[in-house]
Amino acid sequence: MTEKPLPAISAASAPYWEAAANGKLLLQYCAACARYLFYPRSWCPHCYGGALEWRPASGRGAVHTYSVVHAAPCVGFEADAPYVVAVIDLQEGPRMMANIIGCAPETVRVGLPVEVAFEKRGAISLPQFRPVAA
């Protein structure tokens, strides 16, 4: 593979990707148990309800854990190495995996405040995160 992979867009995730293309981060919200969820799906993983709606997210969070990738898994990522793959604790509650961009990998730490940024990749925009400016 010479290019970075693109996500598969399903009926359940289409609103998420449409919003991302417009520079907005949406999360699903369960009206039955009053919890946000991520990744997009057709039912709530907390209460198994189906009363889900899309709500704008703050786009802010903090690094929960991370790893620095030094050996790219395919040619498409070689120019980016070393790069950071992180799990982000979103302010709304769910966790989301993304890259940390806009800083040197050695400056990333657990608890680092981050905000969403969008990387154009083909026909989609992929949510990534960057450190919040001090």
What's the short story on this structure?
With 134 residues, the protein is mainly beta. It is built from one helix and eight strands; from the N terminus they run H-E-E-E-E-E-E-E-E.
Please provide a written account of the structure.
The protein is mostly beta strands and 134 residues long. It has one domain (14-131). Helix content is 6%, strand content 40%. A hairpin with a 4-residue loop joins strand 1 (26-30) and strand 2. It is globular. The chain starts with 13 loop residues before the first helix and ends with a strand.
Key terms:
6% helix; 134 residues; globular; three-stranded antiparallel sheet; mainly beta; five-stranded antiparallel sheet
Mind sketching the topology for me?
Elements: H1 14-21, E1 26-30, E2 35-37, E3 52-56, E4 60-69, E5 83-90, E6 95-100, E7 113-121, E8 124-131
Antiparallel strand pairs: 1-2, 1-3, 4-5, 4-7, 5-6, 7-8
Which structural category fits the helices and strands? mainly beta
Helix proportion = under 10%
Number of helices: 1
Using the alpha-carbon principal axes, give the shape: globular
- How can the largest sheet be summarized? 5 strands, antiparallel
User: How much is the average pLDDT?
Assistant: 95
Number of strands: 8
The total domain count is 1
Low-confidence runs of at least 5 consecutive residues: none
β-strand amount = 35-45%
Distance between the termini: 38 Å
Report the radius of gyration as a whole number of Å.
Answer: 15 Å
Write the H/E string, N to C.
Answer: HEEEEEEEE
* Strands ordered across the widest β-sheet: 6-5-4-7-8
